[in-house]
Amino acid sequence: MQAMQPFHLAFPIRDIEETRTFYQDLLGCEIGRSSEKWIDFNFFGHQLSAHVKLEELALAEANQVDGQKVPVRHFGVVLEWEDWHDLAARLKNHQVKFIIEPYIRFKGEVGEQATMFFLDPSGNALEFKAFQDPKQIFAK
């Protein structure tokens, strides 16, 4: 597998300050450039651009996956196994409400992974996952 390149994702938010607090203070993302209408974050080595755009905010529909209602529109990152567990504990300590509580999906099957879903303050769905065996990320 070749080295991963950073991705860029722009997404809508309702408020710069609550978004800054969530991504910087809770998730540990460094802040990049910003204005009164947008803010960039270093999202685990990737560039997120959060833009104030209220008319674009909407909860995504969900699909059934492994018996869970997974938001169709979501983004996130694959963490190291221990980092995922540390983040799950930090989110629980901050009483973040989960869409899908942290658990092991596809247990004992190809693609077994730790996963959790939650919303940012603007209602954007995030998924964080981890694999004990990174080669399972794209396994069929």
From TrEMBL:
Residue span, VOC domain: 5-131
InterPro entries in UniProt: Glyas_Bleomycin-R_OHBP_Dase, Glyas_Fos-R_dOase_dom, VOC_core
SUPFAM superfamilies found in the cross-reference section: Glyoxalase/Bleomycin resistance protein/Dihydroxybiphenyl dioxygenase
Domain of life: Bacteria
Pfam families membership: Glyoxalase
Protein name, as recorded: VOC family protein
Species this chain originates from: Cyclobacterium plantarum
Source organism phylogeny: Bacteria, Pseudomonadati, Bacteroidota, Cytophagia, Cytophagales
